[in-house]
Write a structure and sequence with these properties.
single chain; Cathepsin B, Chain A; 312 residues; cysteine-type peptidase activity
């Protein structure tokens, strides 16, 4: 965690803001868990990792904003875009064909390099090279934002559903908001780590969950849904010692109980021994932004509250 200072407890309290929100009616909530029920006759593998299938999400940093709920929902919808359309679906192209960000990156990088050239012969070769590098870096950043969905939109706009911006929120409220309003591109709604005015326009929405459901509270359900439906968001309890920097190995602290949930993360894979989970504290935390959590004992309440989404 890049910003850890001397007062770890105060910093941690700014991050752990998963809260209970009113269970408002949502027509997109599939209480019958239809997709999960349809998966019950499938044979599922002993191990699975969506990263090996090509899904390589950005390892982001929520900073001092208690927005884990927003990152979790934005990422799980993004993951379903990957499952449906392939790696890095380009959200700027609203056509029936599948377009990838790789195509867009080639186009925008070429465009940026072309406009970075200058007719001034007095400029040195090294200066030209530096300009091209900056333009290429900017183009890659801009294209990357065109390929992902914005947590900031959920932070700013989901208060009518019960969330409190950087003061916390829930998966239920965030899924309800995303299914009703849809999510824009991060290129149009970048993350600042502060709550601001809601600037969302439905005309800019690029992805919308058609249905979402809460899984049964057991680890076998998590395994089945992850391998057959797609990546899942989940709530969990994290003990304070968990935040003291990078952790490696399989996390198995008996004090990390399933009694109360205070953080939301993205489940991306499993083996017979552990779950593979993505966090929002940057690439230097844990194992390059990920952690491994012991399976089989509901450590940290991993199975207490897990959800999946389906796209329209």
């Amino acid at each position: 965690m890049a910003e850890l200072g001397s007062d770890v407890t105060k910093y941690v309290l700014k991050l752990l803001k998963l809260i209970e929100t009113p269970h408002l009616h949502d027509p997109a909530e599939d209480r019958l868990k239809t997709a999960y029920r349809n998966s019950l006759h499938y044979k599922i593998p002993d191990r699975w990792d969506w990263r090996e299938k090509g899904y390589l999400p950005r390892r982001e940093e929520q900073w001092r904003c208690g927005a884990c709920y927003a990152f979790a929902v934005a990422h799980v919808v993004q993951a379903q875009l990957f499952k449906t359309h392939g790696y890095n679906y380009d959200l700027s192209l609203r056509h029936t064909h599948t377009h990838t960000c790789m195509h867009a990156r080639t186009h925008e990088s070429t465009h940026a390099r072309t406009h970075a050239r200058t007719p001034t012969h007095a400029r040195s070769h090294s200066a030209l090279t530096s300009t091209h590098k900056r333009a290429h870096t900017y183009a890659r950043t801009r294209v990357a934002r065109a390929c992902v969905l914005p947590p900031q939109q959920i932070v700013d706009c989901s208060m009518p559903d019960g969330n409190l911006g950087c003061g916390g929120g829930s998966l239920r409220a965030s899924l309800r908001y995303a299914a009703r309003e849809g999510l824009e591109r991060e290129l149009d709604y970048p993350y600042f780590g502060l709550q601001g005015l809601c600037l969302h326009s439905r005309f800019r929405s690029r992805a919308r969950p058609a249905r979402w459901a809460i899984l049964p509270r057991d680890e076998n359900s998590l395994q089945r849904a992850l391998a057959t439906i797609g990546l899942e968001v989940r709530e969990r309890w994290l003990a304070s010692d968990f935040f003291l920097g990078s952790r490696h190995g399989i996390y198995d602290d008996p004090l990390c109980t399933p009694l109360k949930m205070n953080h939301a993360m993205l489940l991306v894979g499993y083996t017979p021994q552990y779950w593979i989970i993505l966090n929002w504290w940057g690439p230097h935390w844990g194992e390059e932004g990920y952690m491994r959590l012991r399976r089989g004992v509901n450590r940290c309440g991993v199975a207490n509250m897990a959800a999946y989404v389906e796209l329209q």
